[in-house]
Amino acid sequence: MRRMGKIAVIATVAALALTGCGSDDKKENGGSDSAKGPKVGLAYDVGGRGDQSFNDSAYKGMEKAEKELGATIEEAKAAPGENDDIRAERLRTLADAGFNPIIAIGFIYSPAAATVAAEYPNVKFAVIDGYSSTIPKAPLDNLSDLGFAEEQGSYLVGVAAALKTKDKHVGFVGGTHGDLIKKFEAGFTAGVKSVDRTIKVDVQYLTEDPNDGATGFENPSGGKDAATAMFDAGADVVYHAAGKSGLGVFDAVQAAGKGHWAIGVDSDQYLTVDAAQQPFILTSMLKRVDTAVFDFVKAVKDNTAKPGFTVYDLAADGVGYSTSGGFVDDIAEQLNAAAEKIKSGAVVVPTDPAKVK
Amino acid sequence: MNVLRRVLLGLAAPVLALIVAGLFTTLLLLLTGDDVGGFWDTMLSWPKNRNLVNILNSASVLYLSGVAAAIGFRMNLFNIGVEGQYKVAMFAAAVFAGQAWLPGKLNVIAAVLVAMIAGAIWAGIAGILRTTRGVSEVISTIMLNAIAGPLVGYFLAKWGQSTGNSTQTKPIPEESWVGGITIFSDSVTKLYGLSLLAVVVGVLFWLVLNRTRFGFDLRATGSSESAAIASGVNTKRMIVISMLLSGAVAGLVGLPVLFGNSHNYGASFQAGLGFAGIAVALLGRNNPVGIAFGALIFAFLTEQGNLLNIMAGISPDIVAVTQGVIVIAVVIAYEVVRRARTRIEQAAVADALAAEKGAAA
Amino acid sequence: MTSAVAAGETAIELTGIGKRFPGVIANHDIDITIQAGTIHALVGENGAGKSTLMKILYGVQKPDDGTIKVNGAEVSFATPSDAIAHGLGMVFQHFMLADNLTVLENVVLGAESLHGIGDDARAEITRISEVYGFGLDPDELVESLGVGERQRVEILKVLFRGARIIILDEPTAVLVPHEVDALFENLRRLRDQGHTLIFISHKLDEVLAIADHITVIRRGTTVASVLPSETTSRGLAELMVGSELPSPSTEESTVTETVLLAVRDLEVTDEDGRQELAEISFDIHAGEIVGIAGVEGNGQTELVEAIIGMRHLSRGTVTMSGTDITHWTTRQRRESGIGYIPEDRHRHGLLLDSPLWENRILGHQSRPPSVVGPWLNLRGARADAERIIAEYDVRTPGVGTNARALSGGNQQKFIVGREMSGDPKILVASHPTRGVDVGAQAQIWSHIKAARKDGLAVLLISADLDELIGLSDSIRVLLRGRLVGRFDPQSVTPQELGSAMTGAGDDR
């Protein structure tokens, strides 16, 4: 029986490990068959809709497409612990079921999309933040990558942070230490320094592993610890680019109290946090995934979809900042000026933190 | 105890567990108001050929992971660290093979060895800690799992290359890829070349376990450590050797995908195979053939589960719940069956003796 | 609490008790009548069904058939609590005491509601102790008590709970002779105060000395009820086994001049540096059996494990046929011809959930017929397991049966057969016939004697003085980790051995 006990413990551990990552949100079978618009397949990574950030923003674009273009939507969610074959199979299943276009949310889908796009030449594929079009040897005309100039939006919130800090000390909390999040850091730091070179910028990534999304983006307690440390060290504005972990940053700023600010990311997070936290959300860096998704669906419908990379930048209204709460209204002039300089090309925002002057 | 009865008793537990898990999942779906009919239609539909290939691919990888766990389990050594071991090993192999120091297939063979050594070292740490410091291998392997992630991430950030937003190791040159094996001509997916490692490992595992002195010592230690010591088994040495072997097999887990599909270690690294392997080993009763069935069942469930939310609008997470319930149910079922078996045997002994007495009288 | 029952009335009446386990009939048609105020002995060989019967009486198990009457009223016990409520108490062979608690604490544990845990309880304990002459101090720590005193604490526990009928399961198994005398003194006093005692034993001399009535159990049923004055131990033994009693008899000496095992100045310390064995030196010659007597826990286990190589020596040497094997591993020693019959066959001798043929390999993993090089020889192991089953009369349907399914005696015969395989030079036999029925015991003895004749050197550790005297060529006594006496089995008496074993004799 003693041995039995030990096995039972192990079995429980194994079972928990298998089920632990499960979440319970479920979806309604979307769309009606009567619509004549495009049938759009959306493939999410783990987590999926409900992150109040990136994935929800994509869904917002789809809702718009549903309304304005008569599109039908099918969402497919990932389970934890997948490889490229499993992702590819999800895209194939969508393609077999007649969905076109198919939009994959997250760069993780790039290899899978590249594989499946070659198998289904009549179906259009797009990968948000992706690099899929670099993978096939010969370019595919049904494969698009929709990217964003996150550094430009981050630059603007960096300017806002620099103008709002009283102690000349701000912070940045990143999810995983990979190239994507480095762009946020680089833009933010450049924006801060453009206002006042003497302002100190604390930088903290939740994990050094560029591929450890769980620790980077699904870790509110880690986000809270990082932000709390920054506030304790004297920072009074903290910007996060850490997905769900950012919710911890908001807890930290609320705990730090009046005179401290947090800056959200991807969508207008002022609108989704508790009322108690709203007074602390200075602004959010907007990454208009919804715009990209909507534009792509529209382009497919109009048969004008462009293969290869499309970058949504400030000029294309692909990135920006939010004004909900009105906390940045008093500095709107400076922010607009900075935005104009970027649009005109007078300022080129770096994408690598090492290149911030 | 005849062979047929043995086989039936052996099958009783997993079948019982599958039924219980199926009932539990149905109940759960009813409670959440999901489409039960759609769930079973999707799960029990016969997979397309390309899905069959995917199932074989996943199963071979799960099998390797299951055997890695089973090697330890057979001697009551609970290596929970397969997860970290294959991560470290796959990374080491990817870095090594990416350097292309050796040409073509030699590079593959050397990388397989590198992976086995890396996995063995990572597991060996737990073995040494257990024998020299009495640290429970359960604790130390869990800790080593936690260390493996950041360690690999750190080196990946340092040495990796970036493509778009993804960071990965330098890709393996094409001449060292291990091409897929076409099973169905109409399937776009192919069997990973290195899936055959699973067959090799399975045969070796069976042979070593059942036909060698070493395997006997291992099993003896597992069923009674005190009796094994008295019989002259050096259990400390056995612990270290089994951990090394377990880690070496764990090192193979990532290789079919590495050489057959991803060609680098990066964002598409598949996490969770180590834990799934523990479940598969428990399901297969740490038996070489049983683990194969367990791996196939898990691979089948995962592949079918992938279709669930497109076909039936049910979150694929439900499949993870089903798998978890299977594992717990199977452990309970095995104990129930084991007790039943002991009773049957004791009755058989009594019957035989009674018959003997009767004949003598 | 039940009131005292006058002598002459019936305290317990068991009628037609039967109990079946899957494949085993443990008890059937048991009829026993026990008079109040008497000592009633229940004798039978191991496995005769005594333990099951007592478990039924104490409410641990429910009988399948039959009735139990206590003080004339029919009862049905679902749990031991029911039995206790009817004035029954049980003193187990293995004490259930917490060493780091005092006598008082051990006694009140679980019975706090009777007399509290303070002065009332202390007064009650002191009263019981005085009435029956236990001589126990309520505030003494149990770890500082000797075996006999601990047993009295166990008896005190059941008296404290108001027992009038006390079951004692092999109470003398752990005692040395003079402690047995003291126990009997206590028991007689209990009886004289009106208590009823059920005394379970298979030591016939003791039974004859203490019991007022004797019931004999054989093969699960009651076969006779006798008065001690009307029988002898030989007569009882015949009732028990249903045939002639095999007695260990001394035969011609086969001791040779060749020293096979030589132990010199051996010392073993535990993890805390406490000495467990010291200054142990002895030789065993080819054809010689050296018996080690001693109360359990005086270093026997350590001595055996030191010789087998399972325990590290802090000093001293072990030599086999002139070769120093002090630093050899267990496997090396076993390969070179040391057979080992372990004290605890379930822990050290068998893989219970493996078939017999695999158990044949255990301990012989590196020797034929079980292996060929690094490979197992399944056919060889099976064939040799068949041989052992035939030669040693192991009752089993076949070699594929799991060891667990066999009875204790058959497991032990299989182990003996296995350890006699491969021509061992030295046999370390620890309690080789413990828990074995009389028939199997005789077989095991004759196998050991035959091997001795062929030049085997045997180290025999046993708690059974008859076995030691009957088999050994010379007897050593182990007391507190040291060899304290050497006796010639031809002339030694149990009393002499007993006093050496307790240190009560002269200071040798």
TrEMBL record, chain A:
One of its GO terms (cellular component) is plasma membrane. It is found in: Cell membrane. Residues 21-48 are annotated as: Disordered. It comes from the Bacteria. Keywords: Cell membrane, Lipoprotein, Membrane, Signal. It is a lipid-anchor. Its main location: membrane. Residues 44-351 form the ABC transporter substrate-binding protein PnrA-like domain. Gene3D superfamilies: 3.40.50.2300. It holds the Pfam family Bmp. Belongs to the BMP lipoprotein family. This is BMP family ABC transporter substrate-binding protein. It comes from Nocardioides marmoriginsengisoli. The lineage of its organism: Bacteria, Bacillati, Actinomycetota, Actinomycetes, Propionibacteriales.
Automatic annotation (TrEMBL), chain B:
It is found in: Cell membrane. One of its GO terms (molecular function) is transmembrane transporter activity. It is a multi-pass membrane protein. One of its GO terms (cellular component) is plasma membrane. Pfam families: BPD_transp_2. The chain crosses the membrane at residues 7-32, 52-73, 85-102, 108-129, 138-157, 191-209, 239-259, 265-284, 291-312, 318-337. It comes from the Bacteria. Keywords: Cell membrane, Membrane, Transmembrane, Transmembrane helix. Its main location: membrane. This is ABC transporter permease. It comes from Nocardioides marmoriginsengisoli.
